[in-house]
Inverse folding.
């Protein structure tokens, strides 16, 4: 089994007194957040027709309490036939790009074995899946539709350029998604539309970087990432919060506090 990777805290220049640095979210938490945030991925199964070749399918999914993907699939689908023949598969998910650069976006591949659920197992995931995909109520009870669950064997996470590593599946199952998961898109949109000047100030004070343009590309309970246009090229510093935040209001208060500190 592969080992999980937790990024080491980064040290940043600051105009104020030195403060303890929060750790960055580990890859297990980032992966769990990503899989919780999206509801569509690419399921790759082993082709029954062409032995040894992967077969990719666009696949809606939901997560159970341990973060395991659950699929509702028809017996007529090629991926279902492949799974009955060979349960080995992988699910690839990615996050929409905030700055137009898809290679800078988070993505993850979860590998494992998919098995059909029956009886109590099926009943346990039915409402979880329908809460994520309500339109599926129209066909969930058709005789040729069954629930499958992917039992993870290993997971690989890529958080952007130079940010990547394997994640222990046990750690992935035990961690919780970031509490800002749902609020993050609105926070990013607001900062990028209305507070570019503030982000330039934060980059100068807390990352020691002078920039002419700034975009906030991610935000979580422990900090945020900027994409900066500098004289040396494009940079992507991570800036950690002095304290952990739990919701959009606390995030706003924290950013205001940091700008005030930087301009004091």
């Amino acid at each position: 089994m592969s080992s999980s990777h937790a990024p080491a805290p980064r040290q940043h220049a600051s105009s104020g007194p030195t403060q303890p640095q929060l750790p960055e979210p580990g890859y297990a938490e980032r992966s769990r957040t990503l899989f919780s945030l999206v509801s569509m991925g690419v399921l790759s199964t082993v082709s029954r027709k062409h032995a040894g070749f992967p077969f990719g399918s666009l696949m809606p999914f939901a997560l159970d309490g341990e973060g395991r993907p659950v699929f509702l699939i028809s017996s007529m689908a090629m991926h279902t036939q492949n799974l009955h023949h060979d349960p080995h598969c992988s699910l690839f998910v990615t996050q929409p790009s905030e700055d137009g650069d898809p290679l800078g976006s988070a993505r993850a591949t979860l590998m494992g074995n998919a098995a059909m659920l029956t009886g109590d197992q099926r009943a346990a995931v039915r409402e979880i899946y329908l809460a994520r995909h309500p339109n599926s109520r129209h066909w969930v009870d058709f005789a040729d539709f069954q629930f499958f669950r992917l039992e993870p064997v290993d997971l690989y996470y890529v958080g952007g350029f130079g940010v990547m590593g394997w994640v222990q599946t046990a750690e992935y199952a035990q961690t919780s998604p970031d509490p800002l998961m749902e609020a993050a898109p609105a926070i990013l949109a607001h900062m990028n539309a209305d507070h570019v000047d503030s982000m330039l100030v934060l980059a100068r004070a807390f990352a020691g970087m002078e920039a002419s343009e700034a975009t906030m590309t991610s935000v979580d309970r422990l900090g945020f990432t900027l994409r900066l246009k500098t004289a040396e090229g494009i940079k992507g510093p991570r800036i950690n919060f002095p304290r952990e935040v739990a919701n959009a209001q606390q995030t706003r208060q924290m950013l205001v506090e940091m700008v005030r500190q930087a301009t004091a």
